[in-house]
């Protein structure tokens, strides 16, 4: 399960303790949670972010760098911070069929992520064409309305099965 964390939350003095108390109270392993952070968190104090993330990482939490490519996109963040994955912003994904520049940026982020042993997730996938292009570019994780809009659980599961069949047939072909 992914949780978006704001810069304000992340900087709260007892953020680590409160987060650990919540997972203990609800008996959820920290490793089941992925904390999604944006680059704005690191602008003021990278050393603080490194220390805080390392404490959370030791407690079992995982991290994703959200909206990669839209902010300063400093590679220093990928070098110093213990991320498990990066999320390609939908601003790039939405244009991959119309813009070779956008497609090149997305494919470069995918290759960079793989080279750094990071899982790469494409955000904002809305069409079969976008998904196909992402599959061809080596992306293996996606989110977006192509996979379903908010719906009752039965409808959601059926849509998920259909999309999984599409992915498998695209990979096989």
Characterization of this structure:
The chain is an alpha/beta fold and 173 residues long. It has a single domain, classed as EAL domain (TIM Barrel, Alpha-Beta Barrel), CATH 3.20.20. Helices cover 49% and strands 14% of the residues. A 6-stranded parallel beta sheet has the order 1-2-3-4-5-6. Strand 5, helix 7 and strand 6 form a beta-alpha-beta unit. The chain is globular. The mean pLDDT is 90.
Main attributes of the structure:
single chain, 173 residues, TIM Barrel, alpha/beta, six-stranded parallel beta sheet, 49% helix
Record the SSE blueprint.
Layout: E1 2-4, H1 7-11, H2 15-25, E2 34-37, H3 46-58, E3 62-68, H4 75-80, E4 85-88, H5 90-93, H6 100-115, E5 119-122, H7 128-136, E6 141-142, H8 153-172
Parallel strand pairs: 1-2, 2-3, 3-4, 4-5, 5-6
Question: Any idea what the CATH architecture is?
Answer: Alpha-Beta Barrel
Taken as a percent bin, the fraction of beta residues is 5-15%
Give the tally of β-strands.
Answer: 6
Count of DSSP H/I helices: 8
How many distinct domains? 1
Q: Approximately how much helix is present in the residues? A: 40-55%
Element string (H = helix, E = strand):
EHHEHEHEHHEHEH
**General shape:** globular
How would you name the CATH homologous superfamily? Answer: EAL domain
Please state the CA-atom Rg, rounded to the nearest Å. Answer: 17 Å
Q: How far do the termini sit from each other?
A: 31 Å
Sketch the major β-sheet: 6 strands, parallel
Low-confidence stretches: none
What is the structural class? Answer: alpha/beta
So what's the CATH class? Alpha Beta
- Give the CATH topology: TIM Barrel
Strand order of the largest sheet: 1-2-3-4-5-6
The average pLDDT is 90
């Amino acid at each position: 399960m992914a949780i978006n964390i704001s810069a304000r939350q992340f900087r709260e003095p007892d953020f680590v303790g409160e987060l650990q108390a919540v997972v203990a109270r609800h008996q959820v392993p920290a490793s089941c949670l992925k904390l999604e952070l944006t680059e704005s968190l690191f602008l003021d104090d990278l050393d603080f972010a490194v220390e805080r993330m390392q404490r959370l990482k030791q407690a079992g939490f995982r991290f994703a760098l959200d909206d990669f490519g839209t902010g300063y996109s400093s590679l220093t963040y990928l070098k110093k911070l213990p991320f498990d994955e990066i999320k390609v912003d939908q601003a790039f994904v939405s244009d991959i069929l119309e813009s070779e520049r956008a497609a090149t940026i997305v494919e470069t982020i995918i290759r960079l992520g793989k080279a750094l042993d990071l899982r790469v997730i494409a955000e904002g996938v809305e069409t079969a064409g976008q998904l196909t292009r992402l599959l061809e570019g080596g992306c293996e994780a996606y989110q977006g309305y192509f996979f379903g809009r908010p719906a009752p659980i039965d409808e959601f599961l059926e849509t998920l099965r259909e999309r999984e069949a599409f992915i498998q047939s695209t990979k096989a072909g």
